[in-house]
Amino acid sequence: MKMSRIRFPRCIAVSSTLAAGWLSVALPASVEAQEDASIFFDNYVKPHLTAYGSCAKQHIAQIAQKEPASSFDRIEISLRPACGIHIDRARAALAQAGLDKNQINGIIRAAYNGIQPELRSLYDQTASYERQRRQAEREEAARAQRAQEAELARQQQAKEADQERDKLLKEAANEHNACLLNQMKEIVPFSNESAETLAQVIITKCAESEKKYVSLGVAFYGGSKSEMQKIVKDAVDERKKHIVADIVTFRASVTKELMTQPKSNSDVSQTKPANGI
């Protein structure tokens, strides 16, 4: 098909694969070869306009995702640098067919007006979805932040509670130990009872502080009193062994100290041999 022989009819209906379709486009010229003009348009112009439509849709969707708070009217101008190459090619093809600048502009404008509503709708729908998606992400992030803060606060409270429990239990244990030591100091030096008997007496005299430790354990850890008593009893029985050992050690050290002390003069005079008087 030779370009010099193409003459366009006054009106050609332009079909398109775009959803909105192309509007009927006026092509002012003499009417001699309508069939050739339609074939030329379908082969050399329409592919560029269709490519522009595809490019425009893709670009609009990307812009809507990137700038959902904007509007179609504000971002519409970005179509030219993004997809203008296809329009330029369509213009060149129309120019080769002998149309002047005004005719070409009219065809291009009519074609664009045909798909503009679809592009506007695409932007609005995509931008709306993107705004909702971002809002959902912000809300989810906020919920996650609140949950994290709540968990950190819970952990801190639990840590502080554990520290207070440990502190009170340690104080109760120290109180019980102090009682045992005081009773040992008061009883052991002045008693000749067996170490086992003295150890039991000492433990009995500190029964109140032992009960306090049991009560704190039940209150703090929620176990039964009998379970806590068994735990404490096992510890006290172990401690009793140490008390017995301490009593034996104490008495041995006292005995050794007495044996190593020098005898007094009165003791010497009493043991001095008689001189015959």
Characterise this structure:
The protein has helices spanning 34-66, 72-75, 79-96, 101-187, 195-205, 207-221, 225-260, 265-271, and strands at residues 11-12, 25-26. A two-stranded antiparallel sheet has the order 1-2. The protein has 2 domains: 3-141, no CATH class; 155-261, no CATH class. It contains 8 helices and 2 strands, in the order ββαααααααα. The protein is an all-alpha fold and 277 residues long. Helix 3 runs antiparallel to helix 4 and helix 6 packs antiparallel against helix 7 (225-260).
Q: What's a concise summary of this model?
A:
With 277 residues, this protein is mostly helical. It is 76% helix and 1% strand.
Radius of gyration: 52 Å
By DSSP (H or I, 4+ residues per run), the number of helices equals 8
What about the largest sheet?
2 strands, antiparallel
Strand content: under 5%
Q: Which class of secondary structure composition applies to the elements? A: mainly alpha
Helix content: over 70%
- Count of discrete structural domains: 2
Order of helices and strands: EEHHHHHHHH
Shape: rod-shaped
CA-CA gap between termini? 170 Å
Give the overall average pLDDT.
82
Poorly predicted regions: 1-33
- Strand segment count: 2
Biggest sheet strand line-up: 1-2
Kindly list the characteristics that best describe this protein.
277 residues; mainly alpha; two-stranded antiparallel sheet; 8 helices; 76% helix; disordered N terminus
Summarize the SSE layout with pairings.
Elements: E1 11-12, E2 25-26, H1 34-66, H2 72-75, H3 79-96, H4 101-187, H5 195-205, H6 207-221, H7 225-260, H8 265-271
Antiparallel strand pairs: 1-2
Helix pairs in contact: 1-3, 1-4, 3-4, 4-5, 4-6, 5-7, 6-7
